[in-house]
TrEMBL record:
<dbReference type="GO" id="GO:0016020">
    <property type="term" value="C:membrane"/>
</dbReference>
<dbReference type="InterPro" id="IPR017825">
    <property type="entry name" value="Lycopene_cyclase_dom"/>
</dbReference>
<dbReference type="Pfam" id="PF18916">
    <property type="entry name" value="Lycopene_cyc"/>
</dbReference>
<comment type="pathway">
    <text>Carotenoid biosynthesis.</text>
</comment>
<feature type="transmembrane region" description="Helical">
    <location>
        <begin position="79"/>
        <end position="100"/>
    </location>
</feature>
<keyword id="KW-0413">Isomerase</keyword>
<keyword id="KW-0472">Membrane</keyword>
<keyword id="KW-0125">Carotenoid biosynthesis</keyword>
<feature type="transmembrane region" description="Helical">
    <location>
        <begin position="6"/>
        <end position="26"/>
    </location>
</feature>
<dbReference type="GO" id="GO:0016872">
    <property type="term" value="F:intramolecular lyase activity"/>
</dbReference>
<dbReference type="GO" id="GO:0016117">
    <property type="term" value="P:carotenoid biosynthetic process"/>
</dbReference>
<keyword id="KW-0812">Transmembrane</keyword>
<dbReference type="GO" id="GO:0045436">
    <property type="term" value="F:lycopene beta cyclase activity"/>
</dbReference>
<feature type="domain" description="Lycopene cyclase">
    <location>
        <begin position="6"/>
        <end position="94"/>
    </location>
</feature>
<keyword id="KW-1133">Transmembrane helix</keyword>
<protein>
    <submittedName>
        <fullName>Lycopene cyclase</fullName>
    </submittedName>
</protein>
<feature type="transmembrane region" description="Helical">
    <location>
        <begin position="38"/>
        <end position="59"/>
    </location>
</feature>
Length: 106
């Protein structure tokens, strides 16, 4: 079970923040905008991780990852982290902004 922990935490983050989509214009309903926001930053950090792994500055505990890797020796969980966490942040920001707008209009 330990080797799935990273993926389970990412899934839990999505499960907790996904319902926030109902509060505003949404993140999932604006896929082009979401991709433009998340992918450039994810690409930079994936490259950063690869450099750190190659230089033996950074590593992952094999006991907590699935063992699946994308090119450049980066665990699949790390690539998903760079997509899931910003997505959750965008969902949270969008929901809080929508709620505050509603409250301030009163």
């Amino acid at each position: 079970m330990d080797r799935w922990q990273y993926l389970l935490v990412l899934a839990a983050c999505l499960a907790v923040t996904a319902p926030l989509e109902v509060f505003g214009a949404g993140v999932y309903r604006q896929p082009a905008r979401t991709v433009k926001s998340v992918l450039p930053v994810a690409a930079v950090f994936l490259l950063w991780d690869e450099v750190a792994i190659a230089a033996h500055v950074w590593t992952y505990n094999r006991g907590y990852i699935s063992g699946l890797h994308i090119p450049f020796r980066v665990p699949i969980e790390e690539m998903l982290f760079f997509v899931v966490i910003p997505l959750c942040a965008l969902l949270t920001y969008s929901a809080v902004s929508a709620i505050l707008d509603r409250v301030n209009r009163r």
